[in-house]
Amino acid sequence: MSTPSASLPGGTWTLGDLTVTRFGYGAMQLAGPWVMGPPADPDGALAVLREAVGLGITHIDTADAYGPHITNRLIREALHPYRDALHIVTKVGATRDQQGGWPPARRPEQLRRAVRENLDTLGLETLDVVNLRLGDAQGPVTGSLAEAFETLVELRQQGLIRHLGVSNATAEQVAEARAIAPIVCVKNMYNLAHRQDDELIDELAEQHIAYVPFFPLGGFSPLQSSALTAVAGRLGAAPMSVALAWLLRRSPNILLIPGTSSAAHLRENVVGAGLPLSDEDLTELDKIGR
Ligand SMILES: NC(=O)c1ccc[n+]([C@@H]2O[C@H](COP(=O)([O-])OP(=O)(O)OC[C@H]3O[C@@H](n4cnc5c(N)ncnc54)[C@H](OP(=O)(O)O)[C@@H]3O)[C@@H](O)[C@H]2O)c1
């Protein structure tokens, strides 16, 4: 059964001219172990994607590096032709090596190829939003993004990309990108226990730029905290639900892309993100990452 998008927790946000639900879906968990190869249960992966759209989610986050190529192909198989309301956000700037590492691929010719591959694997003529992935697997790394970002601006001018964003970026790189061309989102690691971007989130909110936390639930190491467990216990809710509800309350420009390979977890997360949190809950949760 379809749920109207506006009734999802958090309502909607606009990425440039694209309206998306603040509750989105991160597709990375659909690939095989450590985001390499196909999933053990391909039909289950397709079912999760169809469930996401059936629940009214209109924002899916992906990358051609997931698998590689696996999650994009699953998205295409499950959902193509796409509903007009559905917006797929992808990223370029990293590739995969045989050990499952994420080496950078930010030279102009690599970025051009990556955009073509994303168009091909997703079955699109224009990519709604492309994030330039910076840094490395350990996090952001300082340094100019100009050459790489300007390449994406050219591809946008050619009509292959509608909007741009950056990922795994320092505040200085965000500012550098914005001086070159408008961005609609920043996707960095952030959750209840990792609050390094608090200031950046507030600055972006003032500029109506979305902040999209990756690893909202802790990623490969699930969030664990006694304060989180205490609040969840008091509310009779799952800790993951509290973590998502807190993010939606943290700032109006935060968009959620929790990852899951389980339709049951997806449904639990959608309901959980709508959990009402009291001022007392928020004060207690606020202490976790500070
Ligand atoms: N540089 C970047 O831009 C970047 C980097 C990393 C990720 N991302 C994006 O961010 C998205 C989110 O990150 P993520 O998926 O790595 O991490 P995450 O959302 O923090 O956590 C995903 C993990 O939480 C588990 N989980 C989800 N719901 C649960 C529930 N209700 N109960 C218990 N466990 C639950 C999942 O396991 P199950 O599968 O068993 O549910 C999975 O192991 C990714 O999917 C990807 O699209 C972007």
From TrEMBL:
Could you state one GO cellular component term attached to this entry?
A: cytoplasm
Q: Which Pfam families match?
A: Aldo_ket_red
Ranges for domain NADP-dependent oxidoreductase come to 24-288
Could you cite one Gene Ontology molecular function of this protein?
A: oxidoreductase activity
Q: Which Gene3D superfamilies match?
A: NADP-dependent oxidoreductase domain (3.20.20.100)
Keywords associated with the record: Oxidoreductase
What highest taxon heads this organism's lineage? Bacteria
Species of origin reads Streptomyces fuscichromogenes
So which residues are the signal peptide here? Answer: none
Note the InterPro entries from the entry: AKR, Aldo-Keto_reductase, NAD(P)_OxRdtase_dom_sf, NADP_OxRdtase_dom
Q: What is this protein called?
A: Oxidoreductase
The keyword Oxidoreductase appears for this protein: yes
